[in-house]
Amino acid sequence: MADGVFVTELVTPEEKLLETRARAVVLRSSDGDLTVLDGHTPLITDIVPGEVRVDPEEGEPLRFAVHGGFLHVGPTGTEDGTAGGTLVTVLAGVAEPADRIDVARAERARDAASARVEELRTGRAGQAGGAPEAGEHPVTPEDLELAQAEDALRRAEVRLAVAGVPAG
User: Fold this and answer.
1) How many angstroms separate the CA atoms of 64 and 50, rounded?
2) What's the confidence (pLDDT) of residue 115?
3) Which of 88, 109, 139, 145 has minimal CB crowding within 10 Å?
4) Structure pTM?
5) Cα(145)–Cα(130) distance, rounded to whole angstroms?
6) Tell me, what's the pLDDT at 161?
């Protein structure tokens, strides 16, 4: 029977950032916001860049900037092979605890990415014919560069939001 507490792990390729007993895990997938509680239905889903909040059994919520990944919710195993409680695993290529985010560096990255996005968008607006309709032309190197700059801007904004820095 669910007791309201379950095992939660947050893992990156470099390290296991977290292994704790939690009361809730809150994040966003491509399907929308998701809160996982003990006894949750088994699930595998994606995680979109944003905050992952873990509410531990005791203490303050733990906040992480996660730049995409996957969530697995399933049963824990016991020594006799039967299902135990709930196990939540967050697998992320890049994740940072809020208290490890270098705010000054993230602000510089946001400013640089914002300037680059603006520069690229302004350059496109000045091209003859304006912005093309979807499917009108193949992807260009400029399109890819703009997408990369927008991704860099989103990563910096996620870091700053998780670190508690107001938007703007």
Assistant:
1) 8
2) 94
3) 139
4) 0.80
5) 18
6) 92
